[in-house]
Specification:
The chain is 30% helix and 23% strand. It is α/β, with parallel strands linked by helices. β18 (379-382), α11 and β19 form a beta-alpha-beta unit. The relative contact order is 0.13. The chain binds zinc ion.
């Protein structure tokens, strides 16, 4: 047998029996040998790359990001801070974009964070002035709310006065909408601009994947498509298939479907599917191959911490009467989670507030008591505020926690204001998850924050906010723990550890080459460590040398 390719570097494998290697040989996209055997097999290999003293690791894997939204945002008006540093600058950016558009075109912006712009959301009437009659739709960096102007409200019409379960149209003292639409109320404006076409979405996936490859990402999980306020089109999964068929899917993709698209499924009495929820034909988690897989079902139980909509046991530090709210009636949420479990789904539920985390654990416990399933790997996305008792239950139930380290660096100051000093220790835990035996993947929730894995890894290690404040320093990870979370941990969270997350004989040859070994660097240099190359299936998909 001849290997197809051979790569030389300072290799870390995450395999206990061979943690380090110097040479890695690839055959048909998978690791086939190391070191002397690899050199032997590779004598006639067509591809031979020597990265010298650079460090090669299992490829980065983002367990929770929003690829279609990120790809679309690359062509929308960027209102994040930086570059936008004040509300006046935001209005200026909206005016400049509007001036370049037709008189009836939508001005679509994304990424603003009121916490960094004086504390208030953009004002409807200032947006009217800036856009000169055009409708404006500005999405908050969290994705959980947006602001529209008067022209947009006109197009929404009387629907703005209807009841919205799990969302809110914010109004001023006179009862007039301020333009701020929270959570499910975002569907009012989405109904006007969605769905996107499959071609537009496939292009967005392609643009996003080019960025991912340059950052060392070889696998990602899109955390919710096809329905709810998160979906871009009811046939969004088909956009992934189109991207795959047309050569635009460059990073291995696991795709969660929104629970909004699930419906009742039935079958033989022996199947126990009474009350179960699934896709037509019974499709569920696991369908697909090494490049494109149907992942968990995504359920939203609550909202955003910096947006003060997440479901809390006690009020926010700066808004004590507000305890947020669940994203749907709790009985309905419970039925969705239990029903999805019964239908065989791996369930990934967004929960940020401590009341939401505890409620979701109740639902998982009920589902597992009712229909036990070993190795279910149900997940809690974000797992934002986790009390000690919820931590113990996560471990006991075998639930995977999916927190985002990068939130600390980018929105950590806003989270401290919302929580106050006493609850920060429960927020975005990392080390205590590992100590309790809770599986820990690495993820960004991009485009909510910068998704570059080395940025996330740096924040998982330093736990410093943008202003330099310490954010639960006891939860800091070692560099190796953070690297492992961003590869092996994420693979486990997607039931893919047999193929990904480490470099062993037989596994997919997915890797990232970093200019230096981050374990040997001062923490201050981690965030900007250069990615030299990215390999997917043994082929160099990015070469930045
Ligand atoms: Zn998300």
């Amino acid at each position: 047998m001849n290997a197809d390719a051979v790569f030389r570097a300072r290799i870390a494998t995450w395999a206990d029996d061979r943690p380090r290697a110097r040479t890695l040989a690839v055959w048909r996209g998978r690791v086939v040998a190391f070191d002397d055997v690899a050199e032997e097999l590779a004598r006639d290999a067509l591809v031979k790359e020597d990265f010298g003293s650079a460090a090669l690791f299992p490829g980065f894997h983002d367990a929770h990001c929003h690829t279609t939204a990120f790809g679309l945002s690359l062509s929308e008006l960027d209102l994040s801070t930086p570059p936008v540093s004040s509300m006046e600058e935001l209005y200026g950016a909206v005016a400049a974009r509007a001036a370049a558009l037709g008189v009836d075109d939508w001005v679509v912006g994304t990424g603003y964070d009121q916490n960094k712009l004086g504390g208030r959301h953009p004002e409807r009437h200032r947006l009217d002035e800036a856009a000169r009659g055009r409708p404006v739709w500005l999405q908050h960096t969290s994705g959980h709310m947006c602001v529209v102007n008067s022209a947009a409200l006109e197009r929404i019409g009387s629907a703005v006065d209807g009841a919205i379960d799990g969302g809110s149209v914010v109004r001023d003292e006179q009862g007039e909408p301020t333009g701020l639409l929270e959570e499910r109320a975002q569907s009012l404006v989405q109904a006007l601009v969605l769905p996107r076409s499959l071609e537009e979405l496939a292009e967005a996936i392609s643009r996003a994947h080019d960025r991912y490859l340059a950052e060392g990402l070889t696998s990602v999980c899109d955390a919710g498509v096809a329905g709810g306020w998160i979906g871009q089109s009811p046939v969004e999964f088909a956009a992934y298939q189109l991207a795959r068929e047309s050569g635009r899917l460059k990073v291995r993709s696991t795709v969660m479907v929104s629970s909004d698209v699930l419906g009742p499924v039935s079958g033989h009495a022996d199947d126990g599917l009474e009350g179960a929820l699934g896709l037509p034909g019974g499709l569920r988690t696991g369908l697909g191959d090494d490049w494109l897989r149907l992942g968990p079902v995504k359920v939203f139980s609550d909202g955003s911490l910096i947006g003060r909509t997440c479901w809390m046991e006690h009020g926010f530090e700066d808004d004590p009467a507000n305890t947020g709210y669940p994203q749907a009636d709790p009985d309905r949420l419970r039925a969705v989670i239990v029903g999805a479990h019964r239908a065989g789904w791996q369930v990934a539920t967004h929960a940020i507030g401590d009341a939401a985390v505890s409620f979701v654990l109740d639902c998982y416990e009920e589902a597992l008591g009712d229909a036990p399933r070993p190795d279910h790997r149900h997940r809690i996305e974000h797992c934002g505020v986790t009390t000690p008792s919820s931590l113990a239950r996560l471990a006991r139930l075998g639930v995977v926690a999916v927190p985002q380290g990068r939130f600390i660096g980018e929105i950590g100051d806003g989270m401290i204001e919302a929580l106050g000093p006493d609850r920060v220790g429960d927020a975005y835990r990392l080390a205590s998850f590992l100590e309790a035996g809770v599986a820990l993947p690495g993820s960004s929730d991009r485009p909510v924050v910068d998704g570059r894995p080395m940025r996330g890894i740096a924040d998982m290690v330093t736990r410093r906010t943008g202003s330099g404040a310490s954010f639960g320093a006891g939860e800091a990870l070692t560099v190796e723990q953070a690297l492992r979370a961003y590869s092996a941990g994420s693979a486990y969270a997607e039931r893919a550890e047999g193929d990904r997350g480490s470099l062993r004989v037989g596994q997919l040859a997915d890797f990232v080459v970093l200019e230096q070994d981050p374990r040997e660097l001062p923490h201050g240099e981690l965030a900007d460590l250069r990615v030299l190359a990215t390999g997917v299936g043994g082929a160099l998909a990015y070469d930045g040398r």
